Amino acid sequence: MRLVNEGLAFLLELLALAVLAYWGFKTGHGIAPKLVFGIGAPVLAAVLWGLFAAPRATVSLPLAGVLLVKAVVFGAAVAALVATGHVVLAVVFAVVVVANVAYLTVTRAPAKRSRPAAE
User: Fold this and answer.
1) Closest to 70 in 3D by CA, of 87, 88, 50
2) How far apart are CA 34 and CA 71, in angstroms?
3) How far is 32 from 13, CA to CA, in rounded Å?
4) Does residue 22 surpass a pLDDT of 90?
5) Mean pLDDT, the chain, as a whole number?
6) Among 42, 58, 115, 119, which is disulfide-ready with 17 (CB 3.0 to 4.6 Å)?
7) What percent of the chain is predicted at pLDDT more than 90?
8) Is the predicted pLDDT of residue 119 greater than 70, yes or no?
9) Do the beta carbons of residue 48 and residue 72 sit within 8 Å?
10) Mind listing the pLDDT tens digit for each residue in 23-78?
């Protein structure tokens, strides 16, 4: 079950990036703003994720910090769905994300606590 949820987590992360790109290309008026938002929003989200929320993140944050970054990225994707008129998809996406993050947070925590400290 955990492996399925890890795969779902990766899929949700990719979907968040795709939604942010979709929002950016729909939001901008003119080619330059569309490119800036359509490429910039998912790149910014990916950089934040890689630095702070990925399993092998560059910067190690406490759990609360990781959850905050995830909330910002996934929250932006939900807001982007709402802004583009996909309210039902936004609600479904949010519910699946919350369930997945909660499950993985609970199941990952014991594994991290039981690891011996690095010397």
Assistant:
1) 50
2) 25
3) 26
4) yes
5) 91
6) 42
7) 82
8) no
9) yes
10) 999 997 899 999 999 999 999 999 999 999 998 999 999 999 999 999 999 999 99
CB contact at 8 A, 63 and 55: no
The two tokens of residue 98 are 């919350």
* Confidence grade of residue 109 (pLDDT, cut at 50, 70, 90): low
Q: What is the 3-state secondary structure (H, E, C) of the chain?
A: CHHHHHHHHHHHHHHHHHHHHHHHHHHCCCHHHHHHHHHHHHHHHHHHHHHHHCCCCCCCCCHHHHHHHHHHHHHHHHHHHHHCCCHHHHHHHHHHHHHHHHHHHHHHHHHHHHCCCCC
Counting Cβ atoms within 10 Å, is residue 72 exposed (0-12), middle (13-18) or buried (19+)? middle
Residues 6+ apart with CB under 8 A from 79: 90
Establish how many alpha carbons lie within 13 A of residue 55's alpha carbon, considering only the half-sphere containing its beta carbon.
Answer: 12
